[in-house]
Amino acid sequence: MRKGIIFILSFFILFSFEACKKSQKDKTKSVEGIYKVVDSTATVKWTAYKTTDKLPVSGVFNIVNITKSVGGKTPQSALNNLEFSIPVSSIFSKNEERDGKLKKLFFGVMASTSLLTGTIQVDGDNMGSLEVVMNGVTKSLPLTFTSDGNTINFKGVMSLPDWNIGDAFESLIKACFDQHKGKDGISKTWDDVLIEASVNVSK
After folding, report:
1. Residue 64 falls in which region: left (phi positive, over 0), alpha (psi -120 to 50) or beta
2. Domain 33-202 part of CATH 2.40.128.110
3. 104, 158, 112, 106: which is closest to 134 by C-alpha?
4. What is the per-residue pLDDT for 24?
5. Do 134 and 91 touch, CB atoms closer than 8 A?
6. Spatial distance between the Cα atoms of 143 and 153, rounded to a whole number of angstroms
7. pLDDT tens, position by position, 103-124
8. Are 77 and 105 in contact (CB under 8 A)?
């Protein structure tokens, strides 16, 4: 009888030990399968428009800080709930005069906008949204995603009036009045800005 009990207990202990090992193995496998954002690879390009012909004016932000990233089971889902911070002083358009105006006469007129901060939400394989805090206002814009290997590209269009930037926008229009004249002699500054960004992910 005692031998039978000992045999049963031994079998139970062995089974529990093997189950524990399998659980640990599965847990490790799950962790290893998580995609993580490679912070140093983040880039952000912007394209604004001038003249009645809507000529593009493009630039980048030289500094993009990833402040929170939790990863995901797929490359795109790794961007879900990602938080970022961008110093507006890092704006760069290969035109020093233009950059100075944007820093001082556009962002400098806004409230509490030394940094652009925000969060990315992934809603599906190719769709999501970008929540941006600017001028003390938090608004979202729709995003579309594409993948190129482990590089995730996403883009969306900011409608600047959504951030209540009336004074800053008027300041920019005044500062760039002559530069934004087209062949028709009319000066126009458009209030939509294309945002294109990318980041690499890895396991």
Report:
1. beta
2. yes
3. 112
4. 42
5. no
6. 10
7. 999 999 999 999 999 999 999 7
8. no
